[in-house]
Batch of 3 targets.
Target 1
Amino acid sequence: MTNRVVKDLISVIIPVYNVEDYIEECLDSVVYQTYKKIEIIIVNDGSTDDSLEIIKEYKKEHSNIKIINQRNAGQSVARNKGIEIAKGEYIYFLDSDDFIALDMLNVLMKVFRNTNVDLIRFPANTFLDNINMEIDENKYNFNKYFFENRIYEKNDFLKITNKAFTASPVLYIIKSNVLMEKNIRFFPNIIHEDDLFTIEVFLNIRSATYIAESFYKRRYRKGSTMTTNTFQQSINSFKSKCIILRELYRMLDKHNQKSEITLIKTRITRTIEFLARNYPEIKNESKIKEIKKLQPPYIVFRYYYHYIKGVIANMVHKILDKLK
């Protein structure tokens, strides 16, 4: 793998599934980048709309586009296939219903050349697309935690990330050798797969920096993973979070630095807390049954702690609302 890496080449990996209304805006933001040494790897994950036909038209005009077709297997498998064929010295993941600023890769390459860091983080702007919902516009902005252009050695980076963690891999660009040497891949057949991938990436870098510009444009739309909320989706989400929790505990056996252990334990706590305070449509007995399958056994007690804490918090909020 490392023998075929092309210096200064950026591999942009884009999984695609039924995004015919958005894929052109996404691809335009990549093919018209001011930085030109790019390979664009599009993995069509069994789309049933016109996404593939649109992609094929772009390939006719842009020789740096590669298309991989697969039966629908999910974003994890699609991204992993992209990693396997990527030749870039750097790898960037882009979601096919979002887009990026046209100067993003040019700016990031200048930073890589000036700093030689393993990873660059940056924030995102969020926007609504024909959907009515509340969003936190600062969710992906970490300017209050990081100093722009400062080089952070791993321990310092992890300490700050402990307070400013986001799982989404579209909000950083990584040297490909980090993924290849440590064999870091997305966990297949689950959702929220970013949770595990990103923490593994962060745990295995040597240095990082932060750019305060919101290069990434994140779309909230109907039908996306972020906005779909069916009962089956909740079941899949809950079971995936349980798998993530299991894998996080396994990570503790692989790392011994204080900053590494602290970050993993924080993610464990946040995951248990998330399991306890979400999924109201799933019976609590069903949740406990699934959690009991995990190791160590005391996870159940930690779950109950956060569950009861959440119930009390909700009661207090209701009382305060009545008193207003």
Target 2
Amino acid sequence: MVPPISLADAQLQMARTIAQGPEALTEALFVGTPVQVLRGLKVHANTISHARLVALEATFPRTRALIGEAIFNSLSRDYLDTGNGRNQPLDGLGRHFADWLQANAIAPECVTLARFEWLWLESYHATDMAPLSVSAFAALSPSEVLELRIKPHPAAHVLRNDPDIATIIGLDAPAEWLLLARPEAEVMAYAIADATASLFQLFATSDNLADAFETFLLRHPNSNPLEAMQFLLAAGVLRKDES
């Protein structure tokens, strides 16, 4: 008689069997003949496969509509069959889907839309954190402003825009970049100019506001960093770095 195994061991062995195939099956995991066990594994594997495909559909509904149901389903199967998303929860399967579409020469507007939908999901699930407000920034002294350490809000993202997807996501402005923000409960999307996107990205790497502005002016000598700063503050995409 095969001794029983713990629930934790059973879950681990089941995951290993699903990932590696029947050869990884241990005797203690199932009862019944090998044929019966293999039949059960196939049913379970098909259930998992279907759930993963449905999860990708739910993650990229607009991309699926743009590409077309049949083609999206085929691409999703190829994406998962080549090992993408392995050992990921269902809501994490699409993390590299846009990059995979790009590597497989899918139309640029489809890649941009997939990237937008993934970042939208990341914004939606991001950690709650109060953004740096316009009023709080205005209340700082000049010396405090120069030494202020600012970082992007955890729910904020920027990505290159594609004019072909503007109407799909409800934006008409033909700007170079898209900005995603969720300062409170709702994810918002904005079309922004290159200079504004550049300042936002500089805050991720600069030691303080003065350094960010200095680099910004070198890259965009004809742009006003205060205007870009005011927009980013109003959108709720910046936070004060307390570290």
Target 3
Amino acid sequence: MKIDMKIPNRWTVEDREQNLAHDSYFYATIFDADTGEEWTGMIGTTAAGGGHYHSPYPNIDTAPDEVRAAYWEIRAAKVREAGLKDIREQAEYFADGDVFIGDERYAAPKGTLVEVFKGRKVPKGTTGTVAWVGPDKFNPGMVRYGLDVDGERVWVAGGNVRLVETETFKVDDHRIEMFVERWVTAPAATKDCRCKVRVPVPGKAEMVDEGILIPA
């Protein structure tokens, strides 16, 4: 697809700039409502003369209802496929039971019984109950735990502990499909035609509530 301002019924889905050390590169995602074609590519750069630095086509959110509906049908298929893949992978991770609870995304809640299995400050094999959990300022994306051990509070890096009692689950694919379809067809989703729409991946507790994870 070539950028040509004379071609009607084309709409900008995304328009972004990439700044590098010496030059900028400009990209756009364009939807041609007449052909149903979606195209993403570079539309200009300061490294070479010419080209558009912003998409010449209007934003798709300003398009007529029938154009936005047509685009959403095309986009929804991609959103649906990505959502099924993302949630399935996450559900399988939880289903194994051996969850890495040092990561902020999977931090163990207060009251969880954990075991120290590595590290130097707290003896390996020490078990305690999570009484405090917070970000590890020395390790972005990870957590630290305050554990109650025999009436005393000990502090340990999240990556040094594991669950004492693990649960294993079966994954219900039909429930994943229901979750994704409910999100994809929600009014809030269908109104937003932007390129970066993605189905949110639920956490473990929500997956259990949704029936995506079934206790084995």
